[in-house]
Amino acid sequence: MTAIAGHTTAPPRMAASSRQRIIPALLLMPCLAWISFFFLLPLALMCWRSFAAKGYSFAAYTVLFTSPLYTKVMLTTVKTASIATVIALILAYPVAYVLTISGGFRRALILTFVFIPYWVDIIVRTFSWLILLGDNGLINKLLMATGIVHTPLELLYNSFSVLIAMVQILLPLTIIILFGAMLRIDRTLIAAAKIHGAGSWQAFRTVFFPLSLPGVYGAGLLVFVLSLGFYVTPALLGSPRQTMIAQTIMVEASELLDWGQASAAGLVLLIITTLIAAIYNRYFSLDRLWGGSDA
Amino acid sequence: MSARQEVEEYCANLREILAATRGLDRRDFIKSVGGTLAGWTLATCPGASAELPITVFGFGGVWKKAALKAFGEPFTQKTGINIAYQEPYLFAKLLAMHQARAMQIDTAPVQGEEMYQAERLKMIMPLDFSVIDRSALDPRQLRYGNAVGSHTLSYVICYNKKNWPGENHPASWADFWNVEKFPGRRALRTDELWTVEAALKADGVKDSEFYPIDVDRVFRSLDRIKPHIKTWWSDNSLSQQLMEQEEVDIIAMMNGRATESIRDHHAPFEIVWNEAICEGGSQGWIVPVGCPNPHGAMKFLDIVGRAESEAAFARLIYYGPQNPKAYDLIDPALAKLLPTYPANEKVAHMVDFSWWADNLPAMQRRFQLWLQS
Amino acid sequence: MEQSAVRTSGARVRLRNLSKSYGAVVAVDGLTLDVPAGTFVSLLGPSGSGKTTTLNLIAGFLTPDAGDILIDERSVADVPPHRRNIGMVFQSYSLFPHMTVADNVGFPLRMRAKLSRDESRKRIAEMLALVQLSHLKARYPRQLSGGQQQRVAMARALVSRPRLLLMDEPLGALDKKLREQMQAEIRNIHRSVGTTVVYVTHDQSEALTMSDLVVVMHRARIAQIGTPRALYEAPANAFVADFLGDSNLIPATIVKTAERECAVRIGNRAVIAAPPAPFAAAAGDRAFLFVRPEDMTLQPASSVQPQDRSGLVGTVKELSFHGDVFKLSIAVGDDVLKAKVAREQCGSFEVGRQVVISWTPNAARLLPATSDGASSSESGMR
Prior knowledge:
The structure holds three protein chains of three kinds. Chain A has helices at 2-9, 15-52, 59-66, 68-101, 104-119, 122-133, 138-145, 159-183, 187-195, 200-228, 232-237, 245-255, 259-283. Chain A is mainly α. Chain B is built from 15 helices and 13 strands. In chain B, the strands form four sheets. Chain B has a six-stranded mixed sheet, with helices on both faces. Chain B has a three-stranded antiparallel sheet with strand order 3-11-4, covered by helices on one side. In chain B, strands 1-2 form a two-stranded parallel sheet. In chain B, strand 1, helix 3 (61-79) and strand 2 form a beta-alpha-beta unit. Chain B is globular and about 65 Å long. Chain C is α+β, with helices and mostly antiparallel strands. Chain C folds into three domains: 13-233, 3-Layer(aba) Sandwich (Rossmann fold), CATH 3.40.50.300; 246-291 and 364-377; 297-358, CATH 2.40.50.140. Chain C is 22% helix and 33% strand. Chain C has helices spanning 51-59, 101-111, 117-130, 146-158, 176-193, 204-210, 228-233, 238-243, and strands at residues 13-22, 25-35, 40-44, 66-71, 74-75, 86-89, 164-168, 196-201, 213-218, 221-226, 248-257, 262-266, 270-274, 286-291, 297-300, 312-321, 325-332, 335-342, 354-358, 364-368. In chain C, the strands form four sheets. Chain C has a six-stranded mixed sheet with strand order 6-7-8-3-9-10, with helices on both faces. Chain C has a five-stranded antiparallel sheet with strand order 13-12-11-14-20. A five-stranded antiparallel sheet of chain C has the order 15-19-16-17-18, with no helix packed on it. In chain C, helix 2 packs parallel to helix 4 and helix 3 (117-130) packs across helix 4 (146-158). In chain C, 41% of the residues are buried. The chains are: A mainly alpha, B alpha/beta, C alpha+beta. Chains A and B meet through helix 4, helix 6, helix 11 and helix 12 of A and helix 1, helix 4, strand 8, helix 9 and helix 15 of B.
């Protein structure tokens, strides 16, 4: 984007400098064409459809904002995604930290273990939770065999099971984003803290942790946006009370064939996501995650 | 469509690749894997032909295997036409292709209220009886005029025999609703159509007064059972999981899945055929307007309705044939497990999809709101 | 400044037979060094010579494979970095980007000295005054110039009055003018605080200018230890001679050794008198004759009678102007010698002219042909 802005604002003074500006623009072309054709164009069609399908009116949007169903689902979605994000961040942070301070072999080993579940199909992973968490599942059997509980715990079909599975799916990504951010922290800063009197914990608390926060914020937003779109996990592991917006959109589109309504819901989700990202960015500058200046 | 079917299919395909590639060198390996991969999308039946293949749109997993075996194989043998299979079937996709005037599907099994919508939108080509042998079909298979009726499924109550081993077991929707007499963990489907029909039956509404549905009465009835539902399942394989892991004691689910779990996976459950919520022959194969190979598709429709094909399909997937002559070819022990078996059909409740075709969206929204609050 | 409030006493640092390897690569090989209290000592050497590893061993960031480090006669082998009471200035300053200048400087006080708030504030103010940055204490590091960041790093390293200050090429990122200014400032600060400084650099002029003592390192070992002047005037081997300043290392063969003088032959042309070899040498041995370019005396060949020519005769190949001096390259047979002459004398030397080169016997030195077996290959004559 910046390359294009640079190209249009400053008139090229010399042939060489104009070429220097055109080349980045050319390099962006395939990606831009791809995005335009497969993202922006469908998005525009979706936008048009959300009005046109209801006789060129805001009817679909009226339903969205007046129906208690949509309000509730949207709130559930944001709430579930937020909690899943926070848990994923808390669990991922120590792993990413250990990765950062580990050397070649140990790092490769941990990364392998982090990514093994990532390579397993999401549906298979979700089904595994059914087997683990059921009344006759491994966990309840263990708890009952050891006499900790006498009747099976209700581990499935509630927000607990949805969250635990969502967090499991989100963890590899969260770890890898945090790891990437932590790798960018200058290790000599830790050495500087240590030589100037900070023990390991103090060096972590006063230097490493504050410097890792931009990465945490960035990972948080990415993971949150990803969580908003969860579909299979709440459908299989949740009760209807845990219904998330993606499920509702899916029902509108594929069962009720109400594509106007589905488009409107999709657009509102997109707008809400963008808004949240914008507000978030206002307070926790994301530019730092992309390696920009943190001024 | 079904998550677990997909999983099963991945595994089966991987096993196939492993078996086929044992002891091959690299070039053979690539050839062999390529062959298996191609087979996933283009199901090749024996007997190649110069004729254009037809594209069949259907469900994935077990359903696909059964359809290719019961309908695809005899079709290709007889006509020499190959089948390209697209999955999973979704009416929304068919509709989108129709609206975009880019129909890529030659034939698809359309069900329930979708059939009414397809009719209204003039998506269905008239049947060509110069190709389809009418005498091989039962008149009821042609109830929609332009579709060949194929199979039928039912939403049935299943109870755990360990809880109720004797004669005193849940035997009706009223019993399902009666938590004092039959205490236990219960599961229902999140889909509005089946659960709404069941709620009205549970409230004692007679079949003759069933439609138009008294919506408020439905939700009063649903309110009574809601606190006692341990889980609402949305995916067929989840319903099987619940039964096979004995996570619930009494569950309402689709009959084919229930039979598969009980017969093949030994779930200790029993199906109640009384008041089964039955599709009543609402499923039918159609040829959509504007499809690439309508002539080939009509030849396929000539095969699907025949007693032999229907019997073969029922044997593989436990859905009821709409052609009664098929029962002559089915083992009696299996026949009793099918929704269209005369004794089962007699006690079943038939869904009127014409009412649902008009009322589905409104009912769906109200039901989902009720469910989620 | 002499009686500054920030004055402390320096620590004596001793390295005993210190070794460190990374896999098959030996970074520090049996290093023994005694740094007297309050000394400014430079570890000087090319990259890879082991000087930074030595510094990291003293800091405690690395654990030695063998040997011991004593600070004030106490072994610090089991003391982690944060308990060694050391200040350190890093190559890239390593200021904490999320803290203000004042917080950066106050960091060691918060971590190590349990001072009252007021006392801390006073110390920070003192340190900032010492590095002349009092007006910038609320800024963040990224808002400062390189030189200013350098001063903050100094202030942070010294605020808790450590008895030992380690500096790892602290001026490497600055431009030449700023470097020279900072060199002087660091010297001044060292003089006013009195702490022992171990300073790592690869810049020989920096080491010569700033240090009380220079440790020249080469291939994981110490090539020579001495005052800057001693090293410059009396290098112990060809590596040191070549690494410090410009030098001529003329391959020579010893002809005769005597107590007060010996004679060498250069190529097959001349026999020249030289001071006695500072190493065991016999007639017939190979050696380097070392002469600094500025110690060469040049005369136009035309102005010297052939019978008076006691030195070497060569041809001027190159002449370059360096402000205060001219540098000349003079071909003598197959060898090329370097010479420096003052600006006003240069008129008589042009490229292509024949010159007679001579030096006083005291200006020359004989060095072993192989200094330590390690440095022979690249320390030959250039």
